[in-house]
Fold this sequence. Notes:
alpha/beta; Rossmann fold; Dihydrodipicolinate Reductase, domain 2; six-stranded parallel beta sheet; 9 helices; 15 strands; 34% helix; 29% strand; oxidoreductase activity; NAD(P)-bd_dom_sf; nucleotide binding
Amino acid sequence: MRQLNWGVLGAAGINRSVVPAIQASATGRVAAIASRDAGKAEAAARQYGIPDFYGSYEELLRDPGIDAVYIPLPNHLHKEWTIRAAEAGKHVLCEKPIALNASEAREMAEACERAGVKLAEAFMYRHHPRMERIKALIAAGEIGELRGLHGVFTFNNAGDKGNVRYRADWGGGSVYDVGCYPISAARFLLGAEPAAATAHAFFSPEHDNVDMMCAGLLEFPGGVSLTFDCGMWADFRNDLEIVGTDGRIEVPGAFLPNKDDPDFVVYSRGERREEKGEYANQYSLQADQFARSIWGEEVLKFPPADAEANMKVIDAVLKSAREKARVVL
């Protein structure tokens, strides 16, 4: 079977989810991993059973056997290494958020287009089959006219003061790290872009003044809104609720599904039902969709323009939180 040979730039913690998923996918093989610390690269290669390792990102990009790279580096390095990977002729799956702002996202997209390589943002949850199912139910009027969405994604890691999430100059903060999920989910399910954003955040002096908690409102066309909160110093939650005139859809574990939960619950015209599909590894499905788009078998489901549009909203949310004002997009 045809396989895409992947290289991984960095020994980040997210590799625990992504690397085994690529290895278990129908299309992918992880051929090499790189770190600026050769010892870390060797340890990661041994941990995941990866054939080759490199002590620099440049070495991996020079490897002619690598077709695509996965970039799980800190946010401030996404632009540089996406562009360098593109110039080396490698397709790029870049971890979310794709960049520090919409301008960087556009630069990355343009570099990949010039090089003739694919670029995608690694929002794995969008590849779970239930997301298209939910979108179809909304379109079919299952919950009536849509009135609003509410999304939450929080966790508590505040004690780890050395974490990259708590470096302002590295793109730290809860909106970048987890707020981007409900923002992208609302845009995906509504098929529209918000007109304005309002947000309030807690910027922690103990954590380089990054936003440790943020609550926001996005104004979509037709009077529909997304309300959301995200945080890195709060109890764990990751849920989504979609409310209509005649019902609602509750999505437990919206971004990190729990195998034991129903995929989602539909309340429609006074009746409740659970929708449960077969288990799906959304990271594997993401890798497969990317590979097939590279081979021309499928259209890239979420092109770089979508990533740039999501960054525009993130830019507005952060501007609103800092300036304590409504921001028109």
